Amino acid sequence: MASIFPQCDERLLDAIRNASGAVIVSHRNPDGDAIASTLAMDAILRKMGKKTEILSDGPFLRSDIKRYEGLFRKETSDGFIQTSPLAIIVDCSTPDRPGEAFNKISGLDRIVIDHHSSGIPFTSEGMSYIVPASPSTTLCINEVRKALGIELDKEIAYFLYFGFATDSGFYHFLSDKTAPDALEAAASFCRVGISPYDVYDDLHDGRKLSDIKDMAAVIQSAEPVLSGKFLFAYQSESMKDGKLSDGVYASLLEAEGILGVVLFKDKGDSVEIGFRSKHKSGIDVGKVASELGGGGHMHAAGATVQGSVGEARETLVKLLEGYIS
Ligand SMILES: [Mn+2]
């Protein structure tokens, strides 16, 4: 079977090779893959002798990434932009996703490395490496690393594995198409000393009991809609833990007879909507989310809409009707 990873464009590789330095950014409200992709790319570039800065708008709400918050800047340091570093944008499908950080790098040449299936191109020809079949952005970065001829070391491998483990739900979102390449990459990370057991603990330790109880409250709010084909659940504005939703989706997706789950997060004057569909449902929630200006993957996606939760709920009932036959 052919690899899910195409060759990297030489223009992108040359842009990295020729850069004196780089500013690396990912999306605001970062998750494990966003942070791990930034830190892996950072480690690769430093190994190539390049000066780097990493930016994030945050907030670092998720317990699995909190410990890295101190490494990220809100602004580039004085004079660094004047050296014309390359901007490297990871795990972002649209230019608005980095938030303010995108404005800080707006004048620079840029490359994009990502695995989202929907989005809009925002680099010049040949300057992106986007592989929607890849289980994580870190595995795309691993291909760029190989093409650049940079050896794995424990630091690089740790972050590459971290992003892969979290975005693949510790392997269970892999299919027969994606698993062979992904697990071969994972094996190469483990060969330089990465322990899946340790990464699992790093990803799952340190949550507040109150956040776990909030998760129970969100599960409690679940209501069947569209003749029980979907479950809608609701997260109130006061609930802050970014990992709440992972547990909510995992639990609710086990409900009998459903195709998917929609989670409404009240943000005051807007609503963040998260989507998951079951593997066997055939429902492309990335497409649903893109109809609302968001994006994502076939079975996991998100969008933000203005207005109240009640309005968002009405919109979703109408929209999803078109997707269930
Ligand atoms: Mn990702």
Describe the global form: globular
Secondary-structure element pattern, one letter each: HEHEEHEEHHHHHEEHEEHEEH
- Total number of helical segments? 11
Number of strands: 11
Mean pLDDT across all residues, rounded? 95
Structural class: alpha/beta
CATH topology annotation of the largest domain: inorganic pyrophosphatase (n-terminal core)
Helical amount among residues, as a percent range?
25-40%
Strand composition percent: 15-25%
Straight-line N-to-C gap: 33 Å
Rg (CA only): 19 Å
In the predicted model, the low-confidence regions spanning at least 5 consecutive residues are none
- Number of separate structural domains: 2
CATH superfamily of the largest domain: inorganic pyrophosphatase (n-terminal core)
CATH class of the largest domain: Alpha Beta
The CATH architecture assignment of the largest domain turns out to be Alpha-Beta Complex
Bound molecules: manganese (II) ion
Strand order of the biggest β-sheet: 6-7-8-9-11-10
Q: Strand count, sense and closure of the main sheet? A: 6 strands, mixed
Can you describe what's shown?
The chain is an alpha/beta fold and 325 residues long. The protein folds into 2 domains: 10-203, inorganic pyrophosphatase (n-terminal core); 209-321, Diaminopimelate Epimerase, Chain A, domain 1 (Roll). 37% of the residues lie in helices and 17% in strands. The chain is built from 11 helices and 11 strands. It has helices at residues 10-18, 32-47, 100-104, 137-148, 154-167, 179-191, 196-204, 209-220, 244-252, 285-291, 309-321, and strands at residues 21-25, 51-55, 86-90, 110-114, 128-130, 223-225, 230-235, 260-266, 270-277, 295-296, 300-306. The strands form 2 sheets. It has a 6-stranded mixed β-sheet with strand order 6-7-8-9-11-10, sandwiched between helices. It has a 5-stranded parallel β-sheet with strand order 2-1-3-4-5. Helix 2 runs parallel beside helix 4 (137-148), helix 2 runs antiparallel to helix 5 and helix 5 (154-167) packs across helix 7. The longest helix has 16 residues, at 32-47. The two termini are 33 Å apart. The relative contact order is 0.11. The model has no long low-confidence stretch (mean pLDDT 95). The structure holds manganese (II) ion (MN).
